[in-house]
Amino acid sequence: MAKISMIVNGNPVTANVDPRMLLVQFLRENLRLTGTHVGCDTSQCGACVVHLDGRAVKSCTTLAVMADGHEVKTIEGLAADGAPLHPMQEAFREHHGLQCGFCTPGMIMTAVDIVHRKGNDLTDEVIREELEGNLCRCTGYQNIVASIAAGAKAMAKSDLA
Amino acid sequence: MYEFKYHRPGTVRQAANLLAKNEDAKVIAGGHTLVPVMKQRLASPPHLVDLSHIEGLNEIEMKGRALVIGATATHFEVANSPTVGEAIPALAELAGMIGDPAVRHRGTIGGSLANNDPTADYPAAVMALGATIVTNKRRLKPEEYFQGLFSTALEPDEIITKVLFPLPKKAAYVKFRNQASRYALVGVFVAKRPSDVRVAVTGAGSNGVFRLESFEEALKKRFSHKVLDGLTVAAEGLNSDIHGSAEYRAHLIAVLARRAVEAATAKE
Hints:
The structure holds two protein chains of two kinds.
Chain A: E1 2-8, E2 11-17, H1 23-30, E3 49-52, E4 55-58, E5 71-73, H2 87-94, H3 104-118, H4 124-130, H5 142-156
Parallel strand pairs in A: 1-5
Antiparallel strand pairs in A: 1-2, 3-4, 3-5
Helix pairs in contact in A: 2-5, 3-5
Chain B: E1 5-7, H1 12-21, E2 26-28, H2 34-39, E3 47-50, E4 60-63, E5 66-70, H3 75-80, H4 82-87, H5 89-96, H6 101-104, H7 109-115, H8 122-129, E6 132-135, E7 139-140, H9 142-145, E8 160-166, E9 170-177, E10 184-192, E11 197-202, E12 210-211, H10 213-221, H11 246-266
Parallel strand pairs in B: 1-3, 2-3
Antiparallel strand pairs in B: 4-5, 5-8, 6-7, 6-8, 9-10, 10-11, 11-12
């Protein structure tokens, strides 16, 4: 077993884990943060995307021990419970950027990462290129792209990062 | 995934000692090749030695006439480094084409080279640019380093620490991606170096990355895509699989080599 400590959604957590535990398992099973999903489990679909030190990563391909000492943000950490949604979440709701919703947490965490790296004015071309690692099997991406463009703009006027 | 013992050394020397002491131990940095193969149980190392906490191992800097990239520099760091962008823009572009954004945040240059996947991008750059692979023990030229599919000259307790890229006069990388995996079905890196021209091909060779000497000879006389007119590539020794036949890959190599030279000469 390995002792790990990290900040998850602003809260310090410490645990003893088997070194082979994946970050996504740690988040879902130990911390009960089940918003982060396991889709393909082979680093392709992006349903498991979380932020590690502010950068989008696939938590199904990251060992929990490798996040030791780092900061993790999940979909649950974007906006406080009961508070208004994060502008990117709100944009997905407003623009119907989801159907079954399974890929949505990963899509939104990726979208926020895109805005952090590429700014608030995103062309459809940039968004589609950046969504390389996120798969949706229902909607056909059109509304996801529209949601991200709108969410990116809304983030410029929001206090939520 | 099978059980393993996890080690987190603070220095390269400690890491090498751990590798020497523990049989079949594997090095991990970004984990974006090793973790997937461990999940599939294609690999089951009893010990993992994590390099990600070794300070300075991801540094990128110019040293004299060479660009030096530390082994744990991520694809994201290489793609976005102003130092790389200024010294060898083709290398920054190559790094920005690997996998997807989340993968680039974790995957490292050292990991890609140590794994030597026959469809990986970095081997083409290292081969074409004539880079030197520096380990904790020695310096290796690409011709001695790459030894076929998933195999390299690295000894069990040898660790890549950095890669030295001499600056080319012109360079470009063009890849034809597999539509599903985004790995190179064929990738061609062309480099006009002060003394010669090198053309390296990844994704196609049944023995991993290789150089295309007939194209190099032609380009050495004149660095223009026009000299490649009529030159073809033999299908012999190329991969044939559900993604493309050897003949198709041979055709792609010639097309992409031409495009790479065009791209390199367009960057005046």
